[in-house]
Amino acid sequence: MNTNLPIVSFFRVLNNASRILKNPLPFHHENFEKHGDAFKVQLGFGKTVIFTRDAGFAKHMLQKQHRRYSKSELQTKDLAKYVGEGLLTSTGEKWLKQRRLIQPAFHKKKLESLINTIKEVIEEEFIKIPSNKEIDIFPVMSDLAFKVVAKSLFGYTDTQGDTISRLQHITEAAQKSLVQEIRQPYKRWWFYFSGKIKNTLKLTQEARDILNTIIEERRNSNKVYNDLLDMLLTSKYDDGSVMGNEQLIDEILILFVAGHETTSNALTFTAVLLALHPEIQEQVYQEVSETPDDLPPIEQIAKFRYTKQCIEEAMRLYPPAYFSDRVAIEDDNYQDLKLKKGTTILVSFFEIHRHKSFWKDPSTFDPDRFHPDIDKKEYSDWYFPFGSGPRMCIGNNFAMYEMILAISALVGKYKINTNLHKVDIKPLITLKPENAMLTFVER
Ligand code: HEM
Fold it and tell me: In sequence order, which residues have a C-beta less than 8 Å from that of residue 99 and are 6 or more positions away?
């Protein structure tokens, strides 16, 4: 890599502003094709960002030299304004302390106790899908993913359904506000003076109050629930103390934000891709119908190998977290590139996942790339659906269990058809599907 990176001028950015706002991915791609795997973009007022699709550089900053990098304000300060300082949004010592405390709750063995809950939510949600009628599947997947996290956290009962809907509404409203603020920074003064920001903050306070009541009720009950909240309430820091309510609320809000949209995007993309590839969908159906219904869910998951491959391949083509960023907190070098303290780097997982040097026919949907006989080492250096290094997704196993159970249940119950010819995308903070119009015919 050159010491002097090619520069994309502020003038060019301005000239392309309206299409970048609509969908920045083609602009990124053109520049990668023209300038190579890394270039610098001028953002005005002397600000620059390095864009990269160099998988080695991504590993370098996310994993090998992670101590020299921190997350940008977008992922910390901006998001924390609404959802507080939890795992996703904190940095340094505070993050490390929280990660150590929370990690055990997400170990595979612990997650096994949540699988029945996850399965129940999936069944409840998929019953609602109307047969033989074209629908947008995204809202279904979105409700499913929110309820799975909420129910795994504090196993709400049907009578608490309204509370959960309210929490979902508030989480989505906060994310929407943040997207607007990020995409239209020049309107921030308006969001502030019109009271929009204040209203969103009022909503998030309402969510905090709801969660505080749930936590207090739980602290005062003597029952064992074996859900995530129980695990979080009883986990102890090194000095033997436990998490206080405010920190616990921050962490719960973060789990809602981090685990909800990402999963619903991946589930929707997988369903659309299976509808677009009926022969692959048939292979998933074969696998599902050959697996006995009465096997314990954890054993079923192990049998749904091809289903898993399809989800992995969907996340290669459409990674819900399609980029990440880091800021150098001290001077660093990567190959010939000198990175000064304060440099911001944006890594495009979307581009790495479609890089011709790593993947054969990169735009083809081919789940066999992830066949169990293929050594993981062959792709793990350029496959980052859950990030890499110590800040890698804490919910990756949770999400995989949930998605395997959901896609196998969906394909087992319905044949999925579509009139679409391609996958439509809307890249916001996450890579969202658009117009996911599918028809479900009962098998
Ligand atoms: C398909 C679903 C998911 C995808 C694609 C995904 C992706 C990611 C990625 C790429 C990161 C790392 C970001 C970075 O390094 O900048 C991350 C972090 C995180 N994810 Fe996920 N995620 C998913 C599901 C979940 C679920 C279900 C949960 C929890 C229930 C969750 C909780 C988190 C948390 C708390 C972090 C922050 C970890 C830390 O900084 O220590 N995610 N996720």
Answer: 87, 390, 394
